[in-house]
Specification:
250 residues; mainly alpha; two-stranded antiparallel ribbon; 12 helices
């Protein structure tokens, strides 16, 4: 299905460019790229293709959505971003949070993810329980990413590679540790570590291991471990799709 992007004003376009600069500075200063990427993903990943509800439309600004169990810790991201958002009242929260995710990938050495502005903020958060559960396997991943969001097997694996950034915090998710030795660098190490097996000090969640045990998902893991350019290309496409779920549908 094609996209029909809304036209934004010149003033709006200028605000996007300036906000992007401020986001780069904030992420560099606070080393918070993983948190910003998680905010963008969790904002968008609530989209449901059947009911056309949820999605990247700024509802994470509400305390109710921040209080969902899967969003533990994201109130920190919202708080960090608010002083920048206040400088650009013209921008929607939906655009602003997705822009933060795009910048997070870019400044840590990842691919450039295209960004199209024009999301309108929705007044109400989606109901809780739409985001993936790290303790479950590939059937659950497909229920969330394919059936609910309308993405593909390839997107599941490419987006999982985003775990090359960041770490789990026991108080937030019940898990502790980073997936890679350099959790502030965006590269294909998530996949090489996954194939190398468990190592002391590094994390592999049940949902990570599911990528290896599923015969349709594993070939993507092997491909991305062997070819970072292929991973970057597919990741950029998957991130773009996720960030635009329910937006600019033609």
């Amino acid at each position: 299905m094609g996209k029909s992007y809304p036209t934004v004003s010149a003033e709006y376009g200028t605000a996007v460019v300036k906000a992007k600069r401020k986001l780069r500075a904030l992420i560099a200063e606070k080393n918070c790229a993983p948190l910003m990427l998680r905010l963008a993903w969790h904002s968008a990943g609530t989209y449901d293709v059947q009911s056309k509800t949820g999605g990247p439309f700024g509802t994470m600004r509400h305390k109710l959505e921040q209080s969902h169990a899967a969003n533990n810790g994201l109130e920190i991201a919202v708080k960090l971003l608010e002083p920048i958002k206040e400088q650009f009242p013209i921008l929607s929260y939906g655009d602003f949070y997705q822009l933060a995710g795009v910048v997070a990938v870019e400044v840590t050495g990842g691919p450039e993810v295209p960004f199209h502005p024009g999301r309108e903020d929705k007044p109400e958060p989606p109901k809780e329980g739409r985001l993936p559960d790290a303790t479950k396997g590939s059937d659950h991943l497909r229920d969330v990413f394919v059936k609910q969001m309308g993405l593909s097997d390839q997107d599941i694996v490419a987006l999982s590679g985003g775990h090359t950034l960041g770490r789990c915090h026991k108080e937030r998710s019940g898990f502790e540790g980073a997936w890679t030795a350099n959790p502030l660098v965006f590269d294909n190490t998530y996949f090489t570590e996954l194939l190398a097996g468990e190592k002391e000090g590094l994390l592999q969640l049940p949902s990570d291991k599911a990528l290896l045990s599923d015969p349709f998902l594993r070939p993507y893991v092997e491909r991305y471990a062997a070819d970072e350019d292929a991973f970057f290309a597919d990741y950029a496409g998957a991130h773009l799709k996720l960030s635009e779920l329910g937006f600019a549908e033609a």
